[in-house]
Amino acid sequence: MLALGSLARELDKEKQQEVLSEVAAARRKPAGLTEAISESLRQMLHQSLSANEVREWLEKEGFDLSEYSQPLATISVTLGRLAKSRRVKATRKGRNVTHQWIGD
After folding, report:
1. Counting Cβ atoms within 10 Å, is residue 53 exposed (0-12), middle (13-18) or buried (19+)?
2. Greatest CA separation found in the chain?
3. How far apart are CA 37 and CA 51, in angstroms?
4. CA 89 and chain centroid, separation
5. Separation CA 86–CA 72 (nearest Å)
6. CA 102 to CA 48: how far, in whole Å?
7. Residues 49, 91: contact at Cβ < 8 Å?
8. What is residue 5's predicted lDDT score, i.e. its pLDDT?
9. pLDDT the model gives residue 29
10. Taking Cα atoms as reference points, which of 5, 73, 62, 76 lies closest to residue 30?
């Protein structure tokens, strides 16, 4: 990102502003991933979902995951944090882990 910002200085003012705006936008992740994941689990209150199933739910609901270089890994880490906070119950079956909402 720093290199892109430096290279933008070589462009004309209009193009420079456009590139710098894109760089700034790329630095920010959209707010609300944790909330969106929590909502997916709340809506499936009596079911356990895998990280992949949560990703599918988010995509179906229109949540933009394109900002994340590895969306499934990000979802898995977020689910792990929710489990540590005891808002989600994580259940391991062999190599598979599913998550179920248990509350705030």
Report:
1. middle
2. 57
3. 10
4. 19
5. 21
6. 11
7. no
8. 60
9. 46
10. 62
Residue 101 to residue 91: CA distance in whole angstroms:
11
- In angstroms, the CA 55 to CA 73 distance is 10
Q: pLDDT of the chain along its 104 residues, tens only?
A: 556 566 667 777 788 778 777 766 655 544 589 999 999 999 988 899 999 999 999 999 889 999 899 999 999 999 999 999 999 999 998 899 999 999 86
Phi, psi of 59 (to 5 degrees): -65, -45
Residue 86 to residue 100: CA distance in whole angstroms: 10
Helices (H), 1-104: 2-8, 13-27, 33-43, 51-60, 71-84
Question: How far is C-alpha 101 from the chain's CA centre?
Answer: 18
CA distance linking residue 38 with residue 30, whole number of Å: 15
